User: Fold this.
Amino acid sequence: MSRPSSDFPVERAGRLDLRVRYAETDAMGYLHHSNYLVYFEMGRTELLRLCGVSYREMEERGFFYVVAKIEVRYRVPARYDDEVTLYTWTEKLSPVRIDHRYRLQRGAELLTDASSTLVCVSREGRPVAAPDDVYDAMVRVAGAAENQT
Assistant:
C-alpha cells in the first residue's frame, strides 16, 4: 500500500486498515457519511493505544474525552468492500484539549480528510486536565513541544 503524501507526519500517525462493510453503506453502496465519524473514533482509540493508554481505564478513573468540534471534507466516496486506511494523528495538545487530524485513503487516493477538537472532562462534564501519566504518554507520541498549546 502506498504511503500518504508528505503533508502530514506519518511517523506520528496511527494507522488503521479497514474494509467498508455492507451495513455501513447507503442505498448507492457508498460509505454513509455518519460512519466516517465512527471510523475517526476508532482511529482516536487506536492512537491512544499506541501511546500506551487505555481509554476504558481513563473512564474508570473519571476522565472522558468529548468531541467539541469536528470538520469533515468528503472528497471521493468509499464504497462497499473497499479496503481503506485511516491515518490519525495529534496536531495540537494541551492537558485539557486535543486537536486531531484524519486522512482516509484507498491506496494512495485521498477519500476524506478531517479534524476534531476533544476536551477532557470530569464525570460531572466539567473541563479538567488529563492525568499527568496520560498527558505525558500522548506528548511522547505526538512529538515535539511545538505541538502543545
In short: The chain is about 25% helix and 35% strand.
